[in-house]
Amino acid sequence: MKKLFSAVLFSLFLSSAWAQCTSTEQDKAGVTAACQDYIQAFYKADTTLAYRSVHPLLQKRGFSYSAANQTYSKQLEMPFPALVSLAKRWNANGKQANEKSVQDVQILDICDKTASAKVTAVWGIDYIHLVKEQDKWWVMNVLWQSVPAQSK
Fold first, then answer.
1. 48-62 residue pLDDT tens
2. Fewest C-beta atoms under 10 Å: which of 17, 41, 96, 125?
């Protein structure tokens, strides 16, 4: 019985130690800033914001909804060069988004090296994984979908 109690106590200690991620206000600000740069790169058609906060090894995957077909696309993939190209032209005419467009960043978790956030923008929802390199937060992975079908 004593061994069982010790094993349970030890496993509780390990699970609570592993599950704890602490973050500083500086980390929260860095994650938010990287996510805002990601959004604003598209909204402002400003690729310097993508270069500032999106990692060159970015992997972006997602699904676009077709109202005409009432279905989602197959998985679409976008590496960093394609993101820069799209950001340059997506809102170049200013008709896709403006300063009043939704640009919500919800931080889901921050650890010392990794973080995750949910971004809501005019195009839909993006779940973002970030990595901290040399005290700077970078958008590394994005999983997205267009505005949910039930919202349309």
1. 999 999 999 999 999
2. 17
